[in-house]
Design brief:
Length: 142
């Protein structure tokens, strides 16, 4: 075995410390504790808003609906079969919204308003026009 020189060790440590990124960012995230029929229960999200978009580890999105003291119930806006207990869920800070406008006329869109394009649609549709964003809200019963 070779002997380690103390000056080599200290220079390696100094390089590692100099290259260390100490920046911090705030994230509001939680852990999925149950998944059933397109509804997930998430533990650990303290600052989630009603109607906020939640992004899961695999990129699937959901919408926070049931805000409780220790957990959040969210509807999954995609394939919920890919989600499993223990995966992370991250708050996006955005309320669910869908695009509307002339540019979407005649297009097939998914649940989030993202156009699902086929080669036939690309050839026949014009992409000119303004796309507006409509915030999805639940009206008060009163």
């Amino acid at each position: 075995m070779s002997q380690l020189n103390p000056s080599e060790i200290s220079s390696v440590l100094k390089e590692k410390i100099a290259g260390l990124d100490l920046s911090a960012e705030r994230k509001n995230e939680g852990i999925i504790v149950s998944v059933s029929d397109g509804i997930v229960r998430i533990h650990g999200m303290g600052d989630v808003m009603y109607g906020e978009v939640i992004e899961f580890e695999n990129g699937t999105k959901g919408m926070a609906l049931n805000l409780e003291q220790d957990s959040v119930g969210a509807v999954v806006l995609g394939d919920y079969l890919e989600l499993v207990e223990g995966q992370k869920a991250l708050c996006t800070g955005k309320v669910l919204e869908v695009p509307v406008g002339e540019a979407l006329l005649g297009r097939v869109v998914n649940t989030l308003g993202v156009p699902i394009m086929t080669t036939l649609q690309r050839a026949t549709l014009s992409t000119t026009g303004t796309i507006f964003v409509l915030v999805v809200r639940r009206l008060s019963p009163c």
